[in-house]
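Dear colleagues,

For the upcoming journal club I promised to circulate an example of a predicted protein-ligand complex. I picked one with fe (ii) ion because it came up in last month's discussion. The inputs are reproduced below in full, followed by the predicted structure.
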Amino acid sequence: MMTSVDARGEPVSGASDTAITLYEKALAQFQCYQGDPVATIESAIADSPAFVMAHCLRAYLFALATEVEAMTEARSSFEAAEVLNTSARERRHLAAIAEFLNGNWERAITALEDILIDSPRDALALQVVHLSDFYTGDARSLRDHVARVLPEWSPDDPGYHALLGMYAFGLEECGDYGRAEEVGRRAIELNPQDAWAQHAVAHVMEMQGRQADGIDWMRGRERYWADDSFFAIHNWWHLALYHLDLDQIDEVLALYDGPIRKDRSQVMLDLLDASALLWRLHLRGADVGGRWKELADCWEPLAEDGFYAFNDAHAMMAFMADGRDKAAEAILTAQSKAMAGNASNAMMTNQIGHPVCNALRAFGRDDYATCVDLLRPLRSRLNRFGGSHAQRDIFDLTLLEAAKRDGQLALVRELANERVELKPSSPLNQRYREDAARRLAEISGAAVV
Ligand SMILES: [Fe+2]
């Protein structure tokens, strides 16, 4: 069996020097969310068809897309690697991929942890476990899976910036904003193209309500993250959130019609960001014209997937906002089937995704009391169906607006108080609080009279 080593000294089977160079390029593209890592890794496989880790990298790229159809591609890479000569580490990667194919995220994460315990310099295992922690909403692991291996790396190692970028995001999701920003900026100094580190610092500014800093951070560095990046739409979405916080709706719509939606992307993660932005506008009562129709058309073929509860919720937003009751019903039916299975998504859907989708449907039907009843008990557990704090804030906003529309003013005041304490610079938060306080005072004044 032909054995060489990768750029971090890990033995790899079945690869020529050329194929290893291509593998490293694909891994770097994956770490920076730049270029086309699938095309690059396919070139490596064409050069060295017995290169096990190249098949694994390709499998992971598809397995992490949260799309049903992508799993077929992940499976074909798994099957191509399964018949090859493999080392113990490579067999563990195949075991992790098998768990992804079974839809068992927790067991895949454990398998990846096992790899990292023995091979802390396995950059691919770390990249994949980090994204898995994101999809399962595990803030502590987003931080600590990286911390476990950091001392085994040197700043001179290729890809060290990516560890810092991941660590920055983990620190941010754990609320350690000062360190998150410091570490994220260090990653960017090492590699300005690191779109994940860019994004980690963007999250810090979002959570701290530093809208002007955030706009400067994104606009000032656009040349590094906005071109040739498969993560660019999400980063544009973050820029739009700062403008939304400042009530700059025209800017938000310009970003939506421009970089966020101009290519009419059908990629799941892009649809998700589009829904997440339009729904925030919808909650404010903004007229978004025909934008929902275009988006709902793209979501419609995916309504019956029942594949990942976090996606279902964002499809539901589009269907309710565009008045598509049948498609909304199809999501709930697909979820019922998903809940009967034993994939990780069964738990996510049962505990979080299904009640959230019912809450969104209730909101869409102007049944705000039901929406409040469904969302309120879930608030502190929403992380279980994945995403970031910034993404999941949409459900807090939905609860707040539903409470307002249902006339539950004391609840609105309390929810708004929470938000103002965390982000006093948000005019929206202040408005909710002041509006509720004013109306409550009017009612009590009227009662006294
Ligand atoms: Fe984000």
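Two points we might discuss: The pocket of fe (ii) ion is lined by residues 199, 203, 234, 238, 388, 390 (CB under 6 Å). Residues 270-406 form one domain.

See you all on Thursday,
B. R.
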